[in-house]
Amino acid sequence: MKLLVTGATGFIGGAVARHLLQQGHTVRALARPAHAPEEIAGQGYEPAPGDLLDPASLERATDGVDGVFHVAALYSFWQRDPLAIYRVNVDGTQNLLEASRRSGVRRVVFTSSVGVLRAPEQGELADETFLAKPGELPDHYHRSKLLAEQTALGENGRGLEVVAVNPTAPVGPGDIKPTPTGRIILEFLGRRTPGYVGVDLNIVDVRDVAAGHLAAFERGRAGERYLLGNLNTDLADIYRRLAAVTGLRRRPVRVPYPLVLMAAYADQFVEGRILRRTPFLPLGAVRATRHRMHVDCSKAVRELGVPQSSPDRALFDAASWFVSNGYAGGVKLPAPAGEAP
After folding, report:
1. Measured between alpha carbons, how far is 326 from 241 in angstroms, rounded to an integer?
2. What is the C-alpha separation between 339 and 334, in angstroms, rounded?
3. pTM attached to this predicted model
4. Cβ-based neighbours of 309, under 8 Å, separated by 6 or more
5. How confident is the model at residue 329, as a pLDDT?
6. 218: burial class by Cβ within 10 Å (0-12, 13-18, 19+)?
7. Active-site residue among 2, 133, 145, 177?
8. What is the pLDDT of residues 63-118, one digit of tens each?
9. What whole-number distance in Å separates Cα of residue 322 and Cα of residue 178?
């Protein structure tokens, strides 16, 4: 099949596109003009220059494809104009869905986020039924993803079949930006973790997330959402696991949340308002750490057969990729990736 992937130049989108290629599909990649067509074609994809806010480009991108994987989003915890996040993530999703319907696309997989779920109580696991209300979410990014998911699933019965997948915190090779989880690993490698704020999260191998996208396309029930995750953990445990798989010793110290929150307010005032630059500690990102995300991913495993690969191997492979690609200058890991636990 010929399948369109938005966000194929990003972490999850890239993993999805590579997995589709490995499974024998033809991949068309929607990418903004900043990414040259030669760059896209060099990865084995058919380039489709365009933008989620340019409906005409979406008409061209969706023409002749059998399915769409909408992975792209403006992943930002700070913008001078917060409405920009909603324009890309909500309006852009609507534009793509309308183009898909006009092009005769049968099925769309929409990449949502675990962050659209309301936080579970202590000792409780959130599942796909824990859908939050916008006011329960701590930042504009996750509110926009919730609205975008509702927009996507609302298209069912109007000429489209839409399935939502909600990845947790992905780890693994190819985290080019990197993501917040990738920055945790990168800072660990570079000894830049003097302190951290406590956060409960779920981590998953990004390659399992990619497999989950294709499984949702092939076997997911229209109108349903599926959590793609694996290990419920916290930052202290992630640091312990990183030390075990890399052989590196780091001693980060947990910093009280109120202290980090005050620093974020100060950073936003100085960097964001006075200097007009992106804050080092975006307030939305700090607030999001209080949005506890321990989840039950059994629905995706049971209905879609999503794999549950070793999170330790994913952490090692992520660290190895950062080292191999020059993100962690001077760091040497004790064993090649093939010999990781």
Report:
1. 22
2. 10
3. 0.90
4. 205, 207, 208, 230
5. 78
6. middle
7. 145
8. 999 999 999 998 876 667 889 999 999 999 999 999 999 999 999 999 999 999 98
9. 9
CATH topology of domain 2-171+204-230+296-308: Rossmann fold (3.40.50)
| pLDDT range class, residue 193, cuts 50, 70, 90 | low
Burial of residue 33 (CB within 10 Å: 0-12, 13-18, 19+) is exposed
Q: Please report the DSSP string for 251-287 in residue order.
A: --EE--HHHHHHHHHHHIIIIIIIS-S--SS-HHHHH
Strands 2-6 and 26-31: parallel
Q: Please say whether the beta carbons of 252 and 195 come within 8 A.
A: yes
Query: In this model, does residue 215 exceed pLDDT 90?
Result: yes
Active site residue 177: no
- Integer Cα distance of 194 and 157 in angstroms: 52
Cis check for the bond before 178: say yes or no (omega within 30 of 0): yes
Return the ∠ at Cα 116 (arms to 114 and 122), rounded to 5°: 70
DSSP state of 338: G
Reported as a pLDDT band with limits 50, 70 and 90, residue 119 is confident
Across the range 18-44, mean pLDDT stands at: 88
Amino acid at 159: G
d(CA 136, CA 116): 9
Sign of the Cα pseudo-torsion (120, 109, 100, 9, in order): positive
Q: Which residues contact 223 (CB under 8 A, 6 or more apart)?
A: 153, 156, 162, 163
Q: What angle do CA 15, 21, 22 make, to 5 degrees?
A: 85
Q: Where are the domains of the chain?
A: 2-171+204-230+296-308
H/E element holding 302?
helix 298-304
User: CA nearest 3: which of 19, 244, 11?
Assistant: 19
